[in-house]
Specification:
Blueprint lengths: L5 H24 L10 H26 L3 H7 L7 H31 L16 H30 L5 H15 L3 H21 L3 H22 L7 H10 L3 H29 L1 H15 L23 H9 L22 H22 L1
Helix pairs in contact: 1-2, 1-5, 1-13, 2-3, 2-5, 4-7, 4-8, 4-10, 5-6, 5-8, 6-7, 7-8
């Protein structure tokens, strides 16, 4: 058995990524990079995003597969989407941000029941100038939105393509949540990862996931900047928190529940519109081409002496039915069902990535409890 399959190569690449990421975390914990001063977080985040999440998956995966980088871009679904799809993705990103608040708040409550103490959060700065806003937008929203998607919705979804849509989405989402190496972010990151994986497959493009990821992180950056400078919506999160903890707690929870129901409905509707604008259009063109280029032997008989005949002969019906049901996998970028079961030796780096990231994530929970 030859283990050097795309599945093996993708998991080997991702395992190296996780190893480097953990080493950086350990190095910062022992103040190894303290000599960088105030620029430490910016430099390390740039290294992690550009070096580990983008360049490593792109070039190492290309080398292991012995293919051109251009081919790898195609494998990672760098397929263009139209302007309407971009606008729909922006709307989805806004909804995802607020749904993430609800999800993270729920799991925060659960963790606190186990005695977990949350970290202090972001550092309060005396001033938050405009240039710092753009730097934070680059480091926190633009780079993660692009680079982290290359690693997870590009590398991993490509590597997991033989596992079928369900397993590919679940595994890539789980690894995305664990990649943060933090119990506080694991739950909501895994859920958003599942949504982004589904959208990447259903649209056969990585760009929707990138846009939504950017919007989710970018809104958070803007709210911090707006709060520090008393700008529009700067006190939004504090108002939501006050409403939840206020005297009218029950009413507030009912209102929040109603808002969540509406948000989920809108999210479902926007996802449908996105599918319609991307893969839906391709399938529509496929059906149109089939109708126009269908073999004359499969077409219904022409009308004879003014009588219109619409019935397909019984002998031809199975062929027409098969044409209407079979959808090429390239229209969604992955097989719906599992087509191959990887051997155990192929899974060694997948298991290694899971064990390492789960161990670090659990350690953050234990540390938070202690």
């Amino acid at each position: 058995m030859k283990p050097r399959t795309e599945f093996f190569n993708a998991n080997l690449t991702y395992f190296i990524l996780i190893i480097l990421f953990v080493l950086i975390r350990i190095s910062t914990a022992v103040d190894l990079f303290s000599f960088l001063g105030g620029a430490e977080s910016y430099i390390l985040n740039g290294l992690i995003q550009i070096g580990f999440m983008f360049l490593l998956p792109l070039f190492l995966y290309s080398i292991l597969n012995k293919q051109k980088v251009k081919t790898t871009f195609k494998d990672f679904r760098f397929n263009k989407i139209n302007f309407k799809s971009v606008l729909i993705c922006i709307g989805i990103g806004i909804l995802v941000f607020f749904l993430n608040i609800a999800v993270s708040s729920f799991f925060s409550f659960i963790l606190q029941l186990f005695g977990y103490h949350y970290s202090s959060g972001s550092v309060v700065v005396a001033s938050y100038p405009l240039w710092m806003f753009f730097v934070n937008l680059l480091i926190t929203a633009i780079l993660p939105g692009f680079c982290e998607e290359v690693a997870h919705r590009g590398l991993l979804l490509r590597g997991f393509k033989d596992l079928g849509m369900k397993k590919a989405v679940i595994l890539s989402a789980l690894l995305f949540g664990l990649m943060h190496l933090n119990i506080e972010q694991f739950f909501y990151a895994s859920l958003i990862g599942a949504l982004l994986g589904f959208l990447t497959i259903s649209t056969n493009s990585i760009f929707p996931a990138m846009i939504i990821h950017f919007m989710n992180n970018g809104i958070s950056v803007y709210l911090d900047y707006a709060s520090a400078n008393n700008l529009f919506l700067g006190d939004l999160l504090s108002q939501i928190s006050s409403a939840i903890s206020g005297s009218n707690f029950l009413i507030a929870m009912l209102v929040i529940l109603l808002v969540l129901v509406v948000a989920i409905f809108l999210l479902t509707w926007l996802v449908y519109l996105l599918f319609k604008q991307t893969t839906g259009k391709k399938l529509g063109n496929l059906v149109k081409d089939l109708k126009e280029n269908l073999s004359p032997s499969l077409k219904a008989p022409e009308s004879i002496e003014g009588e219109e005949t619409k019935v397909v002969p019984e002998s031809q019906a199975p062929y027409v039915r098969e044409l209407s049901l079979k959808i090429p996998a390239e229209y969604i970028g992955i097989n719906i069902h599992q087509t191959r079961k990887p051997a155990y030796v192929e899974k060694i780096f997948l298991y290694s990535s899971l064990i390492l990231s789960v161990g670090v994530t659990i350690s953050t929970f234990i540390w938070g409890v202690l």
